[in-house]
Amino acid sequence: MEKILKEKLAQDMPIYQQEEILWMLDHIGHPNYKIRDDLIFVSLARAIQEQLFTKDQFDFVVVEALKRQGLLYKKEEVGQATLIRSFTALLFANLLNADAKKNSLYFKRLSSHQRMALFEQGLSYLLYENDSTGYSEEYGWVHAFAHGADLLVEIIYHPDFPITRVIYQAVLNERLSQTRVAVWLTSLSFPLENSIDFIQFSNVRSCLLEIYLQLNKEKVLADELKETIHLFSY
After folding, report:
1. Rounded-to-integer distance, Cα 132 and Cα 146, Å
2. How do residues 107-158 score in pLDDT, each as one tens digit?
3. Of the candidates 131, 161, 191, which is a domain's last residue?
4. What's the confidence (pLDDT) of residue 234?
5. How far is 130 from 55, CA to CA, in rounded Å?
6. Number of domains in the chain
């Protein structure tokens, strides 16, 4: 299989078979960096970015990748187990990037359920990943945190990602104080002098309403933040 994939990597427009895709997904965390980095992941990333996969093959990769739950693979362990988590994160980043690009063959190809699953798994990943290894003499570049950050960027910049969720989930998980959110809100300025100003202000108000409702539902909305949100009225 390695020989076949190396030959296809050298081709301008290779055509991949299902068994080849399955093999790459099965070995996404291969301990040998020459196979993992230079062959498997380069092949997967290139096939997605250069749209070498058919739409059905892209769908197949998404289904298989989610089914394997690679981001959760032996999450308490470090070393080789981390390679599967780390490179799954990088694969997820590529899938979301392709789904978000209007000029991509795979634009909006993810179902809403698949997209949300990638969002949720990606947001949770860096909370439990505990392997901070950069370079390993045994495995080469592990880079779990860096790849997790790449995934996080693709999530946040995805047009369908509900950005308000980052704020209220961070508050609920006690990773962001409501005082800090209130201070940030008071620093914002909307002159409301033209239509663009009104549109931006309206978008912010919609986000704040979602944050208000979610925190209020959990009965944790502080008076300080509540009063600050109330200031955002026409």
Report:
1. 9
2. 999 999 999 999 989 988 988 899 999 999 999 999 999 999 999 999 988 9
3. 161
4. 62
5. 35
6. 2
Rounded CA separation 114/99 (Å): 11
Q: Identify the domain containing residue 190 by its residue range.
A: 163-233
**Claim to verify: residue 62 and residue 122 sit in the same structural domain:** yes
Dihedral, 47, 50, 55, 57 alpha carbons, nearest 10: 0
Q: Are 49 and 129 in a shared domain?
A: yes
Find the angle CA(221)-CA(122)-CA(56) to the nearest 5 degrees. 130
- How many other β-carbons are positioned within 10 Å of the β-carbon of residue 144? 23
115 and 168, same domain (yes or no): no
Phi, psi of 73 (to 5 degrees): -60, 115
CA distance 46 to 64: 18
Distance CA 47, CA 34 (A): 18
pTM over 0.70: yes
Cα distances from 93 to residues 10, 36, 62, 200, in angstroms, run 24, 17, 12, 28
What is the percent of the chain where pLDDT is above 70? 100
pLDDT in tens, 194-234: 887 788 788 888 889 999 999 999 999 999 999 999 988 76
- Shared domain check, 185 and 125: no
pLDDT bucket at 12, cuts 50 / 70 / 90: very high
Residue that is last in its domain, among 138, 161, 184: 161
Regarding whether 185 and 83 lie in a shared domain, the answer is: no
Task: Give the mean pLDDT of the chain.
Answer: 93
